């Protein structure tokens, strides 16, 4: 699978471990920055991974900030992006199986590198179930997007 990985400065300490794990699993992981702990704005990195997905350069992404909150808020503003912060294995897997999440958000100030590696494995190994009820719910969300949230 082609994945995009990005972080802000708060997420930077976790990014290398996430990329290492993805590559160890045999996946392609494009590093879209940031490259240091110098302060940057997380929306810029949310845009980078969202565009990678929406332009077909990546199938999924991992986006890391300090808490995982800002990353998911920003990424979810892009039409067709379904981002979720998952700090437990159940959610990392189920968010894909049921909700077809395409951006896993992590908080580097909340979890450590080995839990992050576990979550990345759970996330990447999961597949959308395609169940009718889940498709129906995703279609409702897509309708929200089409109506600009009205
Ligand atoms: C940056 O200090 C921090 O606000 C950011 O990484 C993230 O946690 C926002 O949700």
Description:
- By secondary structure, the chain is α/β, with parallel strands linked by helices.
- The chain has helices spanning 12-24, 42-54, 69-75, 89-97, 113-125, 132-146, and strands at 2-7, 28-31, 60-65, 83-85, 103-107.
- Strands 2-1-3-5-4 form a five-stranded parallel beta sheet, with helices on both faces.
- The longest helix is centred in the C-terminal third of the chain and has 15 residues, at 132-146.
- The termini are far apart.
- The mean pLDDT is 97.
- Bound molecules: D-ribose (RB5).
- Residues 8, 10, 42, 65-67, 69-70 line the site of D-ribose.
End-to-end CA span = 35 Å
Bound ligand species: D-ribose
Biggest beta sheet summary: 5 strands, parallel
Alpha-beta classification: alpha/beta
- The portion of residues forming beta strands comes to 15-25%
**Rg result:** 14 Å
Report the CATH C-level class.
Alpha Beta
